Structure formats: structure tokens, C-alpha cells
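Summary for the lay section of the report: proteins are chains of building blocks that fold into shapes. Here we show the chain for DNA-binding NarL/FixJ family response regulator and then a coded description of the shape we predicted for it.
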Amino acid sequence: MAGIIEEKRSALGIRLLMANLPIMVCDLLRSAFAQVPDIQIVEPINDVQQLLDISKKGTADIILLGSSRVENIFSAVAIIDALPECYKDAKVIVLTQRPGYAEVISLFRAGVRGIFCSSNLQFNMLCKSIRRVHEGQIWASNEQLGHLVSSVSRPKSTDVTDSHGRPLLTTREQQVLHLLADGMSNHELATMLRLSEHTVKNHLFRIYDKLGVSNRMEAVLYALTPRNTLPAPVAPTSKVASSKIRMIKTG
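The coded shape description reads as follows.
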């Protein structure tokens, strides 16, 4: 029975659902796909709430999800996380502007199977990406693959403990330091962790204070050295340090 169903699906072609795309882009793509026999367009969905409606009975093989109409790339991640059961087997390709390191890593962690840059949209390549992802492959540029390699090959020994092996940093601070070691900017940190840049700065101030360093480079070098242990931190005595602590608490 499963074989018969799969054969029928193949006869219908790749079922493509376009979602969260600008109406003009959606209309242009729909007209173009009408000339592609192996890709069948499912009724496009421009309303995110309609896409996430758990009562829907629709289905698709590939979801081409736009991210340009939302505040940031992580809204696309949130959409993917909230997709209803009827789309659980669909593979997602995100159509977006050129994404940075944090965006690429977060999208692939969310289960995206392809990222297609809308800034250099070539229809024949878009069709190719849909076919490749449908076959089970990953669609990514060399730059995006470089981000993925970097994310798994960078040093992981950023855990910082005192002389008794107790962590000096909170879980969130350790997470910030871990990403800081990858060279992320404050904006990228905020994007990756879904925090405001103000909150990221507060975390950095706390990290600097606990490690006795004055900037991000010193913090990373400290964390990556074999001697990444410190005595238990003492309460700050200087007025500058005290005012910094107060600023963090009130910020």
C-alpha cells in the first residue's frame, strides 16, 4: 500500500507549498512553476496563522518559506517549530536575503534542508534546489557550508571553573562565552540567543568581571587556555566595579 501511495505521489510531481512570501513574488513564482511539469504548486499561504492552523488538512513535499516579510530570521525558525502535524514530513527551504553565521546555524538546527538567497534569485537554480532537497540532499552555498563546518570544528573547551572545579559562570554566561569564542558580534549573539543586544552587553560585563578581564578578546583567550581555572571570585572593591554591578542589575 505504501508503495502505491508513493507511486501516486511521484506521478503528481513534487508538491510545493509557498508560504510567507510577498504576494508579488508568490504570483511570479506561481506563473513560472506552471511551466515546470515535475513541480506541482499547492495553494500558496501568505498568512502565517493560516499556515500554523492545526486544523488544516493540507500537505506538501517541500515548503518554500519566505523570511523577508518577518522581523528577523528567527521568526522563520519559530514558524518551522510550530508547523502543524500535516506538514511534519515536508522538507523546508527558506528563501531569504543573504544570511550570516548565526542565521545559517539556527536555520539548519531548526531542521531546514535548504537556504536559497533571494538576492540572487535564478529560477532554474530554485527548481534545482527543490529537486535536490526532495531527493534528500541539503541545499547550501559554499559560504553557508563553511559556517556549518566552523560551528562543529571550533574549540569547545570554553568551560571556566574555579580551583575546586565549580563553574564560575552561569549557564547563559557560559553559552555567551562559547559563542564569543566563535567570533560573533553582539548583534549575532543577540540573534543566536534571541536576546536584546542590551542583555548581551550585560552578560558580557558580568563575564569580564568574573574572569577579571577587560574585553572580549581577553575573555576568549582566558577561556581557551589550559589554565582556565580561577580562585572563587571575590566581591568587587573598587568604585568602578561596584558601579558596573549596579548598572547591570538595574539595566
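Put simply, here is one thing we learned. The chain has two domains: 2-150, 161-250.
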